[in-house]
Amino acid sequence: MPTPIVAGNWKMNTTVGEAVTLASALRDPLDAIEGVEKVVCPPFVSLLVVKNALGDSSTAVGAQNMHFEERGAYTGEVSPPMLADLCSYVIIGHSERRQHFWETDEVVNRKVRAALEAGLRPILCVGEGLEEREEGYAESVVTSQLRGALRRVDSIATLAVAYEPIWAIGTGMAATGEAAEAIMVAIRSTLSELYGDAAAGETPLLYGGSVTPDNVAEFAGQPNITGALVGGASLDAGRFAEIARQFAGG
Ligand code: 13P
C-alpha cells in the first residue's frame, strides 16, 4: 500500500499574508500526524512564503498548475523548473483547468510528462461531469482521461491520481465511498494494464469533491482510496488537519 496523501488545493484563495497565516496555523498540527504525506497547494504567488513558513516541517508544498515548456515567450506562465525550486508536487489537469482554461487530454499529457521530467510529483486529476455519470459513462470517461494523460509516460513511480467527480466539487454533494471506490478500482486496473500490478498498487489514488472531517472516514475506509484532494475544507487549518488525521487512522 502506498503512503496516503492528503493534499489541500487552496485554489484562487488567500492573499500572500493570508497564505502565511494559514501555513503557520497548519505547521504544528500537521507535523503531529504521521503515516500520511501532507501537501498544501497555495497560489503561485505564495509558494515561496508558504515554503518558508513551513520551514523544515514534514508538510510538502505543491503548485496548482504549470506550463509544459521549460522557458520562453509565454507571458504569464510558470514553468516546471521554476516550480522545482519551490515545491515538490504539482496538481495537473484539474477539472477547473479543463473547464475554464480549455485544457485538453493532450495538454494534460504534456504537463504530466514535463512535471516528471522536472522531478515534480504530479497529482493528476480525472473526473466525470454530472451528465456523464447519469448516462452511465463515468468509468469510461475517467479511464479515457487517464490513458490520455499517460500517453508516452514510461514510469508512474512518483505519480498520484486524484479522482474528482465534477458534480461533487464545491457542491457539498460528495460521492459515496462505495461509488468512489468503484471508480478507483477502474483506475487501478487501467494502471495495472499499462504499468503492471506492482506499479499500479503503489500509486496513491486520492478522492476529491466536498471532502470534510464529517465524511472523510467513508473514503479513508475504502481499500483503494489512499488519500484526499481537499478544496474548501483545506482553507481551515483545524478541518484540514482533522482530515489528514483520519487518513492516518484517527
Ligand atoms: P472541494 O473540496 O471544495 O469540493 O474541492 C475539491 C477540489 O476541487 C480539490 O481539488
General description of the model:
This protein has 250 residues and is α/β, with parallel strands linked by helices. It is built from eleven helices and eight strands. It has helices at residues 16-31, 47-54, 80-84, 95-100, 105-117, 130-134, 138-149, 177-195, 197-201, 216-220, 237-247, and strands at residues 5-9, 37-41, 60-63, 89-92, 121-126, 160-163, 205-208, 227-230. Strands 1-2-3-4-5-6-7-8 form an eight-stranded parallel barrel, surrounded by five helices. The longest helix is centred in the C-terminal third of the chain and has 19 residues, at 177-195. 1,3-dihydroxyacetonephosphate binds at residues 9, 94, 164, 169-170, 208-211, 229-233.
Summed up:
This protein has 250 residues and is α/β, with parallel strands linked by helices. Helices cover 42% and strands 14% of the residues. The longest helix is centred in the C-terminal third of the chain and has 19 residues.
Q: The biggest beta sheet, please?
A: 8 strands, parallel, barrel
**What is the typical, i.e. mean, pLDDT?**
97
The rounded distance between the terminal residues' Cα atoms is: 18 Å
Please state the CA-atom Rg, rounded to the nearest Å: 17 Å
Q: List the bound ligands.
A: 1,3-dihydroxyacetonephosphate
H and E string = EHEHEHEHHEHHEHHEHEH
- Order of the strands making up the biggest sheet: 1-2-3-4-5-6-7-8
Helix percent band:
40-55%
Portion in strands:
5-15%
Q: Uncertain segments of ≥5 residues (pLDDT<50)? A: none
Question: What is the molecular shape?
Answer: globular
Total count of helical runs of at least 4 residues: 11
- Structural class determined from secondary elements: alpha/beta
Number of beta-strand segments: 8
